[in-house]
Specification:
There is one protein chain. This protein is an all-alpha fold and 91 residues long. Helix content is 89%, strand content 0%. It has two helices and no strands. The longest helix is centred in the middle third of the chain and has 66 residues.
C-alpha cells in the first residue's frame, strides 16, 4: 500500500531526471555544432595560409633562380622544377 502512495513521487522524480537528461543532451549537441563550425572555419584559414606560404616559397625560388640567370615561362615543367627545388630546400 505504501508503494502505491510513493508511486507518484517516483514518477515525478523519473520525469524530472528524464527532462534534465534531455535538456543536457540538447546543450551538448548545440555546443558540439558550434565548435564544429569553428573548427571548419579554422581549417579553411589554415588551408588558405598554406596556399599563401606555397606561393611565397615559389616566389623565393624564382628570385633565387633569377639571380643565377634562369627564367621561367609559367609552364608545367616550371611548376615541377620549382616544387623539386622547394623539396630540396626543405631537406
Amino acid at each position: 500500500m505504501e508503494f502505491l502512495k510513493a508511486l507518484p513521487y517516483f514518477v515525478g522524480i523519473l520525469a524530472t531526471v528524464g527532462a534534465g537528461v534531455k535538456w543536457l543532451y540538447g546543450q551538448i549537441k548545440e555546443d558540439r555544432n558550434h565548435y564544429e563550425k569553428l573548427y571548419q572555419q579554422k581549417q579553411e584559414e589554415v588551408e588558405e595560409l598554406k596556399d599563401q606560404l606555397n606561393e611565397k616559397e615559389i616566389e623565393i625560388v624564382k628570385l633565387k633562380a633569377s639571380e643565377k640567370g634562369a627564367f621561367f615561362d609559367g609552364g608545367k615543367n616550371e611548376k615541377r622544377t620549382i616544387k623539386k627545388r622547394i623539396d630540396k630546400a626543405k631537406c
